[in-house]
Amino acid sequence: MSGLLPKVELHLHLEGAAPPGFIRGLAAEKKVDIARIFDERGNYAYDDFWHFLKVYEAATEPLKTPEDYHRLTLAVLEESAAAGVIYSETFLSPDFCGGRDLSAWREFLHAIREAADLAERRDGIVLRGIVTPIRHLGPEKAKEVALCAAETAGDWVVGFGLAGDEKSGKPKDFSWAFDAAREAGLRLTAHAGEWGGPESVRDALRDLRVERIGHGVRAIEDLALVDELAERGIVLEVCPGSNIALGLYQDWRSHPIHELRERGVKVTVSTDDPPFFHTTMAREYDRLATAFDWDEGVFDEIAKTSAKAAFCDEKTRENILKKLEKAHA
Ligand code: HPA
Ligand code: ZN
């Protein structure tokens, strides 16, 4: 499947997309010793999801200033554009960007947006932000993150999410943060149904009133829930390569994305933390095409589903859809 098919990515953690060479270089510049997080070939090394979260947080250590995030954003968007991504939404955490201090957060955000503007002019790729508290840091910190999100909500910060350890607390612990984000006009998504079972998806829908679910693949264990997702048009941000790399499914053919789609669920495809999972959007497409015999028509439909589910304004959405139409004309 062509790496050049235009792609729309809805689920990407900015720091998790950092090329390992970039983080190693930055660590050397800043004299931060994080050699332990790399294997002998220079890739990120971790044992399981919970260790991955620790390695992820260690990888953010050399990212200290807005300028560092400017460089990070440029490096990430260069990789995404090379894989054919034309529009991307990225998770941003005020926890990492200024420690939830609003004025520091504004500076980090400004630097990220400037880099995104440069990348748009350079590569044509469009980026928008989803502010995301880290679940295992707890609901009180999530409230501070929600206030940062609410203060900067607009045409660029378009969404609010929930990442981190899905086994830490319950979605309802984060209702206050999600209510504040919703009141500020932000669109909502949350990680669920990856490490939690189908009930975690039900909880996120009921208690956080999200319109998209990050992963959500374990809904397949409850077919009544699958029907509900299909009927309500809930969009799943599916990251198959991430699920396989983290051992949730044995191999590509065992992944439920195909069955979810067959059962009428709106599935989309993303990379999550591409270098951690040795993937790119082009590789996801290739693997899916091989595993499920998906042709260009399926990928066209998935890209359009993603564009329609994007949290951006209507004019931006129309532009993405036009680019998709052109590619498949
Ligand atoms: N899942 C959950 N939390 C995360 C991830 C992820 O893939 N990456 C960074 N935080
Ligand atoms: Zn994720």
From TrEMBL:
Keywords: Hydrolase, Metal-binding, Zinc. Residues 6-326 form the Adenosine deaminase domain. Its cofactor is Zn(2+). It is an enzyme of class 3 (hydrolase). Its EC number is 3.5.4.4. Transmembrane segments: none annotated. The keyword Metal-binding applies. The keyword Ribosomal protein does not apply. One of its GO terms (molecular function) is hydrolase activity. InterPro entries: A_deaminase_dom, Ado/ade_deaminase, Metal_Hydrolase. It comes from the Bacteria. Belongs to the metallo-dependent hydrolases superfamily. Adenosine and AMP deaminases family. NCBIfam families: aden_deam (TIGR01430), PRK09358.1-3 (NF006848). This is Adenosine deaminase. It comes from Defluviimonas salinarum. The lineage of its organism: Bacteria, Pseudomonadati, Pseudomonadota, Alphaproteobacteria, Rhodobacterales.
